[in-house]
Every structure is written in structure tokens, then in C-alpha cells.
């Protein structure tokens, strides 16, 4: 059996749809000229379409961890594996949002999302048809009596604004891009930089 080691590009975002789209684009047509290699998600499962009998696919450990698959998972023709609980909940939320009419943006102080902006660090990203230096976005937890920790996993790398950075400024805003007020409470952020090749 011949083996191929393929390099997957970074997806546009870490949503399941974008990750699977980039994963599917990784496989060149010459591997399976009759039927393309396609991963998909449905009803809580990551599934593989039709494959030739002699084709097996093993995903990198980081991708298996993101999808919630055992580290020894092997995809063959029409195989299916349960997705990670958090991914299933995320997809159910997306499907529910698609059914609901669009909601107006919250008024300042009544936000549901928190955006971390890094104006002098990363290049602008598109958010709600606006160009902003968006580092990450997450649900805003209105628990003012306890510490709240958000872990973004896997790490998502974004293009830097320049070759050299002497200082980093982060802004925390809501959906309407209004600054959030943390009063005198400390806020800590861990950033991960990938070395330049």
C-alpha cells in the first residue's frame, strides 16, 4: 500500500464547517479520481464518503483531538465516528440560529459576546461587514462574582501587522464594538506566537 503525507492549510476559522472544508481541500484529485475524498458532519457524527477498498485515512493528532476522535481512528469507505460533545452542541446552536429570525445587536452594556481586539498586533479581520483587528471572539459570561477563564483550543494563528512588535495593546469590546469595563479587576491573556519559518 502506498502512503501519502499531506499538509493541511489553516482554515478560515475554527468552526467545524471551515475545518472540514479545508480538510477536504487537502486531498488532491489524483488520489481518488473517480470519487473525491469528502469528510462531512451530520447528526453528531464525522463521516467519510465512498472510498476505494485500498484507501485508508489517518488524521493528525491535533485534528483528531479537535474532532474528539480516538488517536488510532482510521477512516475507510462510509465510516462514521461520534464527534466531540462540544462540537455537536456548537452545530446544534448554529442550526438553531439559522432557524431563528435575526436579532438586533445588543445595546451597550447588554452584550452577549466579547471580542478581543489587537490593533497594533494583527491584521484586520472581517466582523459583521466591518474590518477590525479581531483576535478572538467568545460568549460573554455575566458572572461578576467569580473568575472566568476562556481556553481557545486548538490555537488559531493570525497574520501579524508587521515584522517587529515592541508593545501589545488589547481591547475588549462587545458586539457593537463598545469597550467593556472591567473596573479594577485584573485581566490576563496568554498569547502564542508561531516562529517564523
Count of DSSP E strands? 8
Task: State the shape.
Answer: elongated
End-to-end gap? 33 Å
Helix content: 10-25%
The order of strands across the largest sheet is: 1-2-3
Strand content: 15-25%
Mean pLDDT, rounded to whole units? 80
Instruction: Detail the poorly predicted runs.
Output: none
Class from secondary-structure proportions: alpha+beta
What key attributes describe this structure?
three-stranded antiparallel beta sheet, alpha+beta, 197 residues, 2 domains, 3 helices, elongated
Fold and architecture overview:
The chain has about 200 residues and is of the alpha+beta class. The chain has 2 domains: about 15-90, no CATH class; about 105-195, no CATH class. The chain has helices at about 15-25, 60-65, 85-100, and strands at about 40, 45-50, 80, 115, 125, 130, 135-140, 170-175. A hairpin with a 2-residue loop joins strand 5 and strand 6. The two termini are about 35 Å apart.
Amino acid at each position: 500500500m502506498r502512503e501519502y503525507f499531506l499538509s493541511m492549510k489553516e482554515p478560515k476559522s475554527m468552526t467545524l464547517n471551515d475545518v472540514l472544508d479545508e480538510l477536504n481541500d487537502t486531498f488532491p484529485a489524483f488520489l481518488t479520481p473517480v470519487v473525491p475524498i469528502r469528510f462531512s458532519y451530520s447528526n453528531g457524527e464525522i463521516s467519510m464518503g465512498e472510498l476505494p477498498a485500498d484507501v485508508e485515512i489517518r488524521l493528525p493528532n491535533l485534528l483528531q483531538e479537535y474532532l474528539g476522535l480516538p488517536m488510532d481512528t482510521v477512516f475507510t469507505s462510509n465510516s462514521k465516528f461520534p464527534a466531540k460533545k462540544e462540537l455537536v452542541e456548537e452545530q446544534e446552536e448554529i442550526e438553531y440560529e439559522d432557524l431563528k429570525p435575526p436579532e438586533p445587536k445588543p445595546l451597550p452594556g447588554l452584550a452577549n459576546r466579547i471580542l478581543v481586539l489587537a490593533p497594533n498586533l494583527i491584521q484586520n479581520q472581517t466582523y459583521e461587514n466591518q474590518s477590525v483587528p479581531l483576535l478572538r471572539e467568545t460568549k460573554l459570561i455575566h458572572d461578576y462574582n467569580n473568575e472566568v477563564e476562556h481556553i481557545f483550543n486548538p490555537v488559531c494563528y493570525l497574520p501579524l501587522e508587521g515584522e517587529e512588535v515592541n508593545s501589545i495593546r488589547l481591547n475588549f469590546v462587545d458586539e457593537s464594538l463598545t469597550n467593556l469595563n472591567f473596573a479594577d479587576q485584573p485581566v490576563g491573556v496568554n498569547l502564542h506566537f508561531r516562529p517564523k519559518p
